[in-house]
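User: quick one, sequence for these C-alpha coordinates?
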Protein backbone atom coordinates (compact mmCIF):
# COMPACT_ATOMS: atom_id res chain seq x y z
CA UNK A 1 0.00 0.00 0.00
CA UNK A 2 0.96 3.63 -0.33
CA UNK A 3 0.77 4.69 3.31
CA UNK A 4 0.55 8.33 4.37
CA UNK A 5 3.21 10.94 3.76
CA UNK A 6 5.40 11.97 6.69
CA UNK A 7 5.21 15.52 5.31
CA UNK A 8 1.51 15.56 6.28
CA UNK A 9 1.85 13.97 9.74
CA UNK A 10 1.14 16.33 12.64
CA UNK A 11 4.16 17.39 14.70
CA UNK A 12 3.06 17.34 18.35
CA UNK A 13 6.43 17.87 20.04
CA UNK A 14 9.91 19.06 19.11
CA UNK A 15 13.18 17.78 20.54
CA UNK A 16 16.78 18.68 19.78
CA UNK A 17 20.02 16.73 19.91
CA UNK A 18 23.39 18.49 19.97
CA UNK A 19 26.27 16.58 18.41
CA UNK A 20 29.91 17.04 19.35
CA UNK A 21 32.87 15.83 17.30
CA UNK A 22 31.32 16.20 13.87
CA UNK A 23 32.96 19.52 13.00
CA UNK A 24 36.35 18.82 14.55
CA UNK A 25 37.27 17.23 17.87
CA UNK A 26 39.21 20.29 19.02
CA UNK A 27 36.45 22.87 18.55
CA UNK A 28 33.87 23.31 21.29
CA UNK A 29 31.14 23.90 18.71
CA UNK A 30 28.15 21.60 18.52
CA UNK A 31 25.82 20.81 15.65
CA UNK A 32 22.09 20.76 16.38
CA UNK A 33 19.36 18.62 14.86
CA UNK A 34 15.74 19.48 15.68
CA UNK A 35 13.26 16.63 15.32
CA UNK A 36 9.50 17.00 15.09
CA UNK A 37 7.75 14.07 16.80
CA UNK A 38 4.49 12.50 15.62
CA UNK A 39 2.78 12.02 18.99
CA UNK A 40 -0.62 11.26 17.45
CA UNK A 41 0.76 8.58 15.13
CA UNK A 42 3.25 6.93 17.49
CA UNK A 43 2.15 7.89 21.01
CA UNK A 44 4.08 5.29 23.00
CA UNK A 45 7.48 5.61 21.26
CA UNK A 46 7.19 9.41 21.28
CA UNK A 47 6.53 9.44 25.03
CA UNK A 48 9.67 7.31 25.55
CA UNK A 49 11.79 9.61 23.36
CA UNK A 50 10.50 12.65 25.25
CA UNK A 51 11.61 11.02 28.51
CA UNK A 52 15.01 10.06 27.06
CA UNK A 53 15.55 13.72 26.15
CA UNK A 54 14.19 15.08 29.46
CA UNK A 55 16.25 16.11 32.51
CA UNK A 56 14.99 13.15 34.55
CA UNK A 57 15.55 10.60 31.81
CA UNK A 58 13.65 7.35 31.21
CA UNK A 59 13.31 5.04 34.24
CA UNK A 60 14.81 1.64 33.38
CA UNK A 61 15.66 -1.39 35.51
CA UNK A 62 19.04 -3.13 35.52
CA UNK A 63 19.44 -6.29 33.46
CA UNK A 64 19.47 -9.39 35.72
CA UNK A 65 22.90 -10.58 36.83
CA UNK A 66 24.13 -13.31 34.49
CA UNK A 67 26.14 -16.35 35.50
CA UNK A 68 29.50 -16.50 33.76
CA UNK A 69 31.73 -19.53 33.45
CA UNK A 70 35.04 -17.74 33.91
CA UNK A 71 35.67 -16.27 37.35
CA UNK A 72 37.23 -13.13 35.87
CA UNK A 73 34.12 -12.55 33.75
CA UNK A 74 31.85 -13.24 36.72
CA UNK A 75 33.67 -10.62 38.78
CA UNK A 76 33.28 -8.15 35.93
CA UNK A 77 29.58 -9.03 35.56
CA UNK A 78 29.09 -8.49 39.30
CA UNK A 79 30.81 -5.12 39.05
CA UNK A 80 28.68 -3.98 36.11
CA UNK A 81 25.50 -5.15 37.87
CA UNK A 82 26.36 -3.54 41.22
CA UNK A 83 27.31 -0.30 39.51
CA UNK A 84 23.98 -0.33 37.69
CA UNK A 85 21.96 -1.00 40.86
CA UNK A 86 23.51 2.01 42.60
CA UNK A 87 21.72 4.48 40.34
CA UNK A 88 18.80 2.34 39.12
CA UNK A 89 16.09 4.10 41.12
CA UNK A 90 17.17 7.72 40.96
CA UNK A 91 18.86 8.15 37.59
CA UNK A 92 16.85 7.67 34.41
CA UNK A 93 18.49 6.83 31.09
CA UNK A 94 19.22 9.80 28.82
CA UNK A 95 21.16 10.52 25.64
CA UNK A 96 23.98 12.52 27.25
CA UNK A 97 27.31 11.22 25.90
CA UNK A 98 25.54 8.61 23.80
CA UNK A 99 27.11 7.98 20.43
CA UNK A 100 26.39 7.87 16.73
CA UNK A 101 27.14 4.15 16.50
CA UNK A 102 26.43 3.18 12.91
CA UNK A 103 26.39 5.01 9.61
CA UNK A 104 25.39 2.96 6.59
CA UNK A 105 25.65 5.67 3.96
CA UNK A 106 22.33 6.58 2.30
CA UNK A 107 20.65 3.70 4.17
CA UNK A 108 20.59 4.61 7.86
CA UNK A 109 22.22 6.68 10.59
CA UNK A 110 21.89 5.12 14.05
CA UNK A 111 22.25 7.38 17.09
CA UNK A 112 21.79 7.09 20.84
CA UNK A 113 23.98 4.14 21.88
CA UNK A 114 23.80 5.16 25.54
CA UNK A 115 26.90 5.81 27.62
CA UNK A 116 28.63 3.18 29.72
CA UNK A 117 26.71 3.89 32.88
CA UNK A 118 23.49 2.88 31.14
CA UNK A 119 24.60 -0.16 29.13
CA UNK A 120 23.32 -2.59 31.76
CA UNK A 121 19.81 -1.11 31.77
CA UNK A 122 16.89 -2.98 30.22
CA UNK A 123 15.96 -1.27 26.97
CA UNK A 124 12.33 -0.26 26.37
CA UNK A 125 9.93 -1.99 24.04
CA UNK A 126 8.79 0.42 21.33
CA UNK A 127 5.20 -0.23 20.24
CA UNK A 128 3.85 0.19 16.73
CA UNK A 129 0.55 2.02 16.45
CA UNK A 130 0.12 1.02 12.79
CA UNK A 131 0.13 4.60 11.52
CA UNK A 132 1.00 3.68 7.94
CA UNK A 133 3.86 6.19 7.94
CA UNK A 134 6.95 5.12 6.00
CA UNK A 135 10.56 6.13 5.40
CA UNK A 136 9.49 8.18 2.41
CA UNK A 137 12.33 10.68 2.22
CA UNK A 138 15.50 12.01 3.83
CA UNK A 139 15.18 12.99 7.50
CA UNK A 140 12.52 10.50 8.62
CA UNK A 141 13.21 9.45 12.22
CA UNK A 142 12.30 6.01 13.58
CA UNK A 143 12.93 3.53 16.40
CA UNK A 144 13.28 -0.23 16.18
CA UNK A 145 10.01 -2.02 16.88
CA UNK A 146 10.15 -4.21 20.01
CA UNK A 147 12.77 -4.34 22.72
CA UNK A 148 15.99 -5.36 20.99
CA UNK A 149 17.01 -1.99 19.59
CA UNK A 150 18.49 -0.47 22.73
CA UNK A 151 17.48 3.10 23.55
CA UNK A 152 18.54 4.61 20.25
CA UNK A 153 16.89 6.00 17.15
CA UNK A 154 17.53 6.06 13.42
CA UNK A 155 17.59 8.92 10.94
CA UNK A 156 16.93 7.84 7.37
CA UNK A 157 19.24 9.77 5.01
CA UNK A 158 18.08 8.34 1.69
CA UNK A 159 15.26 8.61 -0.79
CA UNK A 160 11.80 7.12 -0.52
CA UNK A 161 11.07 3.82 -2.26
CA UNK A 162 14.54 2.32 -1.91
CA UNK A 163 15.35 -1.16 -0.63
CA UNK A 164 16.87 0.41 2.50
CA UNK A 165 13.64 2.31 3.12
CA UNK A 166 11.63 -0.91 2.82
CA UNK A 167 13.87 -2.68 5.34
CA UNK A 168 13.37 0.17 7.81
CA UNK A 169 9.61 0.16 7.13
CA UNK A 170 9.56 -3.49 8.22
CA UNK A 171 11.76 -3.17 11.31
CA UNK A 172 11.14 0.33 12.60
CA UNK A 173 8.32 2.58 13.77
CA UNK A 174 8.31 6.07 12.24
CA UNK A 175 8.25 8.61 15.08
CA UNK A 176 9.09 11.93 13.45
CA UNK A 177 11.16 13.88 10.97
CA UNK A 178 14.08 16.28 11.03
CA UNK A 179 12.81 19.88 10.99
CA UNK A 180 16.16 21.69 11.27
CA UNK A 181 19.71 20.51 10.69
CA UNK A 182 19.40 18.41 7.53
CA UNK A 183 22.86 19.76 6.67
CA UNK A 184 24.09 18.04 9.85
CA UNK A 185 22.35 14.81 8.80
CA UNK A 186 24.09 15.05 5.41
CA UNK A 187 27.46 15.39 7.12
CA UNK A 188 26.73 12.41 9.39
CA UNK A 189 25.82 10.41 6.30
CA UNK A 190 29.29 11.09 4.84
CA UNK A 191 31.28 10.01 7.92
CA UNK A 192 34.01 7.44 7.19
CA UNK A 193 33.30 4.15 8.97
CA UNK A 194 34.92 0.86 9.96
CA UNK A 195 34.51 -1.66 7.14
CA UNK A 196 35.82 -5.19 6.98
CA UNK A 197 36.19 -6.69 3.53
CA UNK A 198 33.05 -8.53 2.49
CA UNK A 199 31.21 -8.14 5.77
CA UNK A 200 27.88 -9.90 6.01
CA UNK A 201 25.60 -7.07 7.14
CA UNK A 202 23.24 -9.42 8.97
CA UNK A 203 26.07 -11.04 10.97
CA UNK A 204 27.36 -7.77 12.33
CA UNK A 205 28.00 -8.99 15.85
CA UNK A 206 30.31 -11.91 15.21
CA UNK A 207 31.73 -14.29 12.68
CA UNK A 208 35.01 -14.53 10.86
CA UNK A 209 35.31 -10.84 10.01
CA UNK A 210 35.60 -9.81 13.65
CA UNK A 211 39.26 -9.81 14.52
CA UNK A 212 39.40 -8.66 18.11
CA UNK A 213 37.52 -9.60 21.25
CA UNK A 214 34.44 -7.52 21.92
CA UNK A 215 34.81 -4.78 24.47
CA UNK A 216 33.06 -4.79 27.80
CA UNK A 217 30.48 -2.36 26.43
CA UNK A 218 29.87 -4.77 23.55
CA UNK A 219 29.23 -7.66 25.94
CA UNK A 220 26.92 -5.76 28.26
CA UNK A 221 25.37 -3.25 25.93
CA UNK A 222 24.57 -5.50 22.99
CA UNK A 223 25.36 -5.33 19.29
CA UNK A 224 25.39 -1.55 18.99
CA UNK A 225 28.69 -1.51 20.87
CA UNK A 226 30.59 -3.92 18.62
CA UNK A 227 29.47 -3.12 15.13
CA UNK A 228 30.79 -2.78 11.69
CA UNK A 229 30.00 0.57 10.09
CA UNK A 230 30.98 2.43 13.25
CA UNK A 231 32.21 5.98 12.51
CA UNK A 232 36.01 6.24 12.60
CA UNK A 233 35.76 9.39 14.67
CA UNK A 234 33.71 9.61 17.83
CA UNK A 235 30.56 11.69 17.44
CA UNK A 236 28.58 12.05 20.66
CA UNK A 237 25.26 13.56 21.66
CA UNK A 238 26.45 16.23 24.10
CA UNK A 239 22.94 17.25 25.09
CA UNK A 240 19.29 16.80 24.20
CA UNK A 241 16.00 18.29 25.30
CA UNK A 242 12.67 19.79 24.36
CA UNK A 243 12.96 22.35 21.56
CA UNK A 244 10.88 25.49 21.31
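Assistant:
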Amino acid sequence: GGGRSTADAAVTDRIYVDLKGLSSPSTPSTDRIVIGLFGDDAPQPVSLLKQLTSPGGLPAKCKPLESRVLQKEQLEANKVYNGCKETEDDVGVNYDFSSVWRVDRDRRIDLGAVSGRFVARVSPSFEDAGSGLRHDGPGVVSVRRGDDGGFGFTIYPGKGGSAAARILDEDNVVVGRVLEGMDVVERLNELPVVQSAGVNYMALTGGATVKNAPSRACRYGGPMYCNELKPLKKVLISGAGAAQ
